[in-house]
Amino acid sequence: MSWPFIVLLALAVAVVVGAEWQRLTSRLGGRFDGEARRIRERQRRKANLKLVRSETEEFEESVQRDLAELPTIEERDHR
Description:
- The protein is mainly α.
- The chain has one domain (3-69).
- The protein has helices spanning 3-19, 21-28, 34-47, 56-69.
- The chain is elongated.
């Protein structure tokens, strides 16, 4: 075999591997899959988070109180 043929064969193999990389990594599992690792790390971080609930009832009461204190205009019938 001549060296240009070997170079072309190597380039063809590289192109096929590059095109099929996603499928290869999904079949091989977490070994080469950096995305799966990031997902696991994110889930671990999210497990440590705590939801802080705001005081919505107090806010709602204050809004209702403010709306009740607004001046109103009585509309008259225009005939």
